[in-house]
């Protein structure tokens, strides 16, 4: 499970990215890295389209949380978005209170259970060390399931480096969709995404937490490399960095493959209706051998690269 597992959730779940880099990060004081304004960087992420005589669907891979200054909304991406009638994202716009309630519903251990009691002595000690290193009590996540602790731990160092869902691609699209009067729908709901994590077997969740703890020292470096490949429009290299083949197949199936298949089916059905649709989902879903495009190809639909 190496590198991919460390950033897997933040790449593949918009719900968790919003919650962890938004709500949780707000509980931590701003640091110099957060306050500094980096120089603007021009980015040209990959963009595809599927089209017939009366329907066009654009496919754009997003980064749910970014640092300020990444200038990606330009060129073919901006043109395609403005020409579309409808914005499709992983989840619809969701009120903060509803998002928080959904997380709490899926993330809590059963009464009488404790996260630290579920871990072996080595992982327990490393978890406590990581939490105290972030200025939190060792008991901070005792009431939560391992998957949630893993995602929350991922968020803290990223927030420290200035990554935020407020700077992410979906937030920009949400603002622009309202400005241009685009309809917006979600492929899933926040509750559905969180239920995926909640349903992961306990051993998978514990392995996920273990890998996140082990990878904390290089987490920001790992994500920065992925953002660079996304910015340069290199999905093949991004897939290589994500390294899906080394992950637990149960986690890959639940968070990636099954969802890609369902989204490809949605696209196939939507192609039967006229219109122009801009579909923006996590970049990890549009990279690698089990990408949405690969699923589409199996049904005869070809996604053509336009940027």
Count of β-strands: 8
Low-confidence stretches: 23-30
Strand content: 5-15%
Q: State the secondary-structure class.
A: alpha/beta
Helical percentage: 40-55%
Could you give a short account of the major beta sheet?
6 strands, mixed
Protein model, in words:
This protein is of the alpha/beta class. The chain has one domain. Helices cover 53% and strands 11% of the residues. It has a 6-stranded mixed sheet with strand order 6-5-7-3-2-8, with helices on one face. Strands 1-4 form a two-stranded parallel ribbon. Strand 2 and strand 3 form a beta hairpin. Helix 2 packs across helix 8 and helix 5 packs parallel to helix 10. The longest helix is centred in the C-terminal third of the chain and has 22 residues. The radius of gyration is 19 Å and the shape is globular.
Task: Give a short synopsis of this structure.
The protein has 307 residues and is α/β, with parallel strands linked by helices. Helix content is 53%, strand content 11%. The chain has one domain.
């Amino acid at each position: 499970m190496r590198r991919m597992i460390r950033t897997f959730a933040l790449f593949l779940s918009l719900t968790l990215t919003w919650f962890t880099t938004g709500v949780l990060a707000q509980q931590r004081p701003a640091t110099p890295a957060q306050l500094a304004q980096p120089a603007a960087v021009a980015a040209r992420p990959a963009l595809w389209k599927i089209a017939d005589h009366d329907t066009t669907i654009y496919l754009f891979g997003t980064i749910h949380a970014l640092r300020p200054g990444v200038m990606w909304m330009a060129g073919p991406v901006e043109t395609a978005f403005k020409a579309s009638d409808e914005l499709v994202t992983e989840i619809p716009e969701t009120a903060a209170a509803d998002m928080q309630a959904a997380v709490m519903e899926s993330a809590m251990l059963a009464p009488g259970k404790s996260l630290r009691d579920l871990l072996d002595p080595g992982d327990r000690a490393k978890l406590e060390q990581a939490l105290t290193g972030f200025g939190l009590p060792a008991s901070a996540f005792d009431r939560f399931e391992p998957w949630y602790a893993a995602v929350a731990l991922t968020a803290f160092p990223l927030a420290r480096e200035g990554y935020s869902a407020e700077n992410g691609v979906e937030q920009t699209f949400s603002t622009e969709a309202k400005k241009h009067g685009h309809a917006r729908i979600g492929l899933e709901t926040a509750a559905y995404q969180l239920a995926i994590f909640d349903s992961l077997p306990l051993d998978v969740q514990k392995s996920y937490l273990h890998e996140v703890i082990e990878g904390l020292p290089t987490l920001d470096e790992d994500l920065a490399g992925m953002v660079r490949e996304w910015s340069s429009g290199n999905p093949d290299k991004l897939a290589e960095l994500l390294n899906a083949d080394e992950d637990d197949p149960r986690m890959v199936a639940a968070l990636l493959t099954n969802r890609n298949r369902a989204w490809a089916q949605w696209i196939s059905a939507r192609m039967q209706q006229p219109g122009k649709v801009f579909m923006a989902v996590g970049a990890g879903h549009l990279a690698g051998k089990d990408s949405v495009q690969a699923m589409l190809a199996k049904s005869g639909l070809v996604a053509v690269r336009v940027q």
